[in-house]
Amino acid sequence: MRKSTLMEKVTRRTISSSSFFLCFFIFSSSILFLAGKSAAKVSFDGDNDDNVTALFIFGDSFLDAGNNNYINTTTLDQANFPPYGQTFFGLPTGRFSDGRLISDFIAEYAKLPLIPPFLEPGDSQKKLCGVNFASAGAGALVETFQGSVISLRTQLGHYKKVERLWRIKFGKEESKKRISRAVYLISIGSNDYSSPFLTNQSLSFSMSQHVDIVIGNLTTFIHAWDGSSLRRIRYPDNFKISGSGSLFGESIILLSLSGSGVCGYPGFKEGKMGCCGSGPLRGINTCGNQMGKSYELCENVTDYLFFDASHLTEKAHRQIAELIWSGPPNVTGPYNLQALFELN
Ligand SMILES: *[C@@H]1O[C@H](CO)[C@@H](O)[C@H](O)[C@H]1NC(C)=O
Ligand SMILES: *[C@@H]1O[C@H](CO)[C@@H](O)[C@H](O)[C@H]1NC(C)=O
Ligand SMILES: *[C@@H]1O[C@H](CO)[C@@H](O)[C@H](O)[C@H]1NC(C)=O
Ligand SMILES: *[C@@H]1O[C@H](CO)[C@@H](O)[C@H](O)[C@H]1NC(C)=O
Ligand SMILES: *[C@@H]1O[C@H](CO)[C@@H](O)[C@H](O)[C@H]1NC(C)=O
Ligand SMILES: *[C@@H]1O[C@H](CO)[C@@H](O)[C@H](O)[C@H]1NC(C)=O
Question: What are the UniProt keywords, alphabetically (predicted)?
Answer without folding.
Answer: Signal
